[in-house]
Amino acid sequence: MYLDSAATAQKPQIVLDALTDYYINQNANVHRGLYQLAFQATEDYEKIRQQVGEFVGVNADNIVFTRGTTEALNLVASSFGPLVVHPDSEILVTAAEHHSNFIPWQQLAKRTGAKFVVVPPDDQGIVTTDAIIDHVTAKTAIVAVAQVTNVTGHVVDVARIGQAVHAKGGYLVVDGAQAVAHMPVDMRQLGADFYAFSGHKIYGPTGIGALVGKKQLLQQMPPIAFGGEMIDMVTEAESTWAPSPLKFEAGTPNIAGVFGLSAAITYLTQSDAEAREQHERALLDQLRTGLQAIPGMTVYGDSEGVSVVSFNLAGVHPHDLATYLDEQSIAVRAGHHCAQPLMTQLNIPATVRASVGLYSNEDDVERLLSAVRAAGRYFNESE
Ligand code: PMP
């Protein structure tokens, strides 16, 4: 039984079919060949860029295909970062960020001499929208924040943070890895300058994702990887670049992944967003309430969180609990969840984290709850 969709979602048949169909019937390199199969692959690849754009409320030329959220965030930090960050700037992140949205900014701060400001969490592991806004100053060049954090599932108000950051002349980068599968994302409402997400967390393949960026910013940014597909002209003396987004997609891209991502978006959007949200909300409520009733239980985050619930059982190491659950064929995640600064702030080594997807159901949650109850008895008796 799989309750680790926040790490990566299981793939529906439509995604598997899209990958197979691409390799059987459409396989050709894109933006290169002068033959029908290659024309078609290129046309479809670019149509999918438009579909991905529509999925998040932007145009095709706002979408850069990347390997996933991590690569997208690193691209912004490496390419855009130096354009706006100076030695007297501040770069603002929260202590609840995934390492993918923490380390690139920490390293950028080190390279530029900027101040790296980390907003601390409350004792539930939450960094609120207000706490983030309170730390924005006239020196803040970039705020990088997850719309939904992967440890507590807390959701921040991106639009409000964006207004505060823009009012002070800074830029907002949003890690959407845990958000896109669970809520409609419309860049026109969020107003973020950049937004990153991964295909594999929205039922698509691994190795594909997107950076969504404002066009005028993408145009100013230098490429950071060089090679085929991203050039305009190359001479011995100089090279010039293709327009954005192609200038950021050096080398043969993950074409099959793009086709799989298209199928994943089709899968996700063919059901009603509100019904999806209600289904997952009911499961997370059941999970949170059930866990809270277990003696010695600490549940992190707040009841409005999405995607995940993190918890710890007194006297039981999270890894032992996860191993016990694995023996009952229940897959949950235990560890620091690539969020070591948050674990340090909470003074814990790790948590157990259960997360739901569209295919999760009440029985899954009930089985987990009864296994956790049994684990509590088992570990306490064996003490
Ligand atoms: N940010 C958050 C909040 C995440 O949950 C994850 C994946 N665990 C990432 C970033 C990184 O995503 P990926 O590994 O797909 O690049």
TrEMBL record:
Its cofactor is pyridoxal 5'-phosphate. It catalyses: (sulfur carrier)-H + L-cysteine = (sulfur carrier)-SH + L-alanine. Keywords: Pyridoxal phosphate, Transferase. CDD domains: SufS_like. GO terms for biological process: cysteine metabolic process. One of its GO terms (molecular function) is cysteine desulfurase activity. It is an enzyme of class 2 (transferase). Residues 1-368 form the Aminotransferase class V domain. Gene3D superfamilies: Aspartate Aminotransferase, domain 1 (3.90.1150.10), Type I PLP-dependent aspartate aminotransferase-like (Major domain) (3.40.640.10). The keyword Ligase does not apply. Its EC number is 2.8.1.7. It comes from the Bacteria. SUPFAM superfamilies: PLP-dependent transferases (SSF53383). Belongs to the class-V pyridoxal-phosphate-dependent aminotransferase family. Csd subfamily. This is cysteine desulfurase. It comes from Lacticaseibacillus saniviri JCM 17471 = DSM 24301.
